[in-house]
Amino acid sequence: MGATTDLWGFLHDLIFGSPHPLLVIIEITTGLLVVAALLGVVVRFWKGDRIEIGPVKIDRPEIVRYLEASVDAIVKDDRLKKNVLWTFRERLNEATGIIIGGTDAPRVRTWCRGTLTDIITTLSEGGDDRHRASVWIKVSDRLQMYNGVGFRQDALDNATLPLDSIAGIIFQTGKSHNSKDVDGDNAFALKPRSGRPYKSLLAVPIRTPMGKTIAALCIDAEAQGYFDADHEFFASCFADLIALLVAQVITGD
Fold first, then answer.
1. I need a surface site. Which of 116, 134, 174, 229 has the fewest CB within 10 A?
2. Across residues 71-94, what is the average pLDDT?
3. pTM exceeding 0.70
């Protein structure tokens, strides 16, 4: 009889809205189960190239990935051009001042080192700890480092390269060389040893206004296949800038 009374009391509360302890417990339990179910069917947004909603997986359309990659490339390209243009103008103004004030070897060497620092910073987008740059000139039957950034002092003072190295080939051909993986490049000759495993090398000629190659600009990167066509173009622009002063010191032109 008591059980029947409790049942009628529960139904009375359920129908007429009066709180009943058991009903409250059921409501709380139901709510917890719903929350647990939602957490169990968690929505993982854009995991890689797909959306996963529980067992349902929806791949992103190829066109979406393509457009996203294109937008990223535009942003990177614009940023790279902006950085290169700004540093180029600064170094060009300095070069003009040096020419007007009288070109001398120490000032040119200091300016060249600053330009190499700018090259690393702009082409590596700030990751200068994983890059290095150097300028090589021909001395007798060897190449000698004129200046460099990212090298030990003993390398700056004594480093040389053979004429059959990539930098040496630049003197022979007057053409740029982009090595995606120096380990597999037969033309590669090790520059001064480093504690870092440089895998990519971009070398471009430094020419006089008459087109004679007087030096080679080399830029190293740790990552394989780092340098692309844009890097090569901007490196050539910096090489022409370096030639403004280095040519006068080396050849007197």
1. 229
2. 74
3. no
Q: What's residue 135's pLDDT?
A: 94
Which stretches of 102-141 are DSSP H helices?
105-123
With b for 16 or more beta-carbon neighbours within 10 A and e for fewer, the 52-87 pattern comes to eeeeeeeeeeeeeeeeeeeeeeeeeeeebeebbeeb
143: three-class secondary structure by DSSP: strand
Domains of the chain, first to last: 2-59 (no CATH), 78-250 (3.30.450.40)
Q: In Å, how far from its chain's centre is CA 113? A: 21
Q: Are 219 and 195 in contact (CB under 8 A)?
A: no
Q: What phi and psi, each to the nearest 5 degrees, are found at residue 193?
A: -60, 150
Contact 153, 142 (CB under 8 A): no
DSSP-derived letter for residue 7 is: H
Rg (CA), the chain: 33
Decide if 238 contacts 88 (C-beta within 8 A): yes
What is each CA distance from 172 to 36, 98, 212, 228, 248, in whole angstroms? Answer: 72, 30, 10, 23, 21
Question: Is the CB of residue 216 less than 8 Å from the CB of residue 135?
Answer: yes
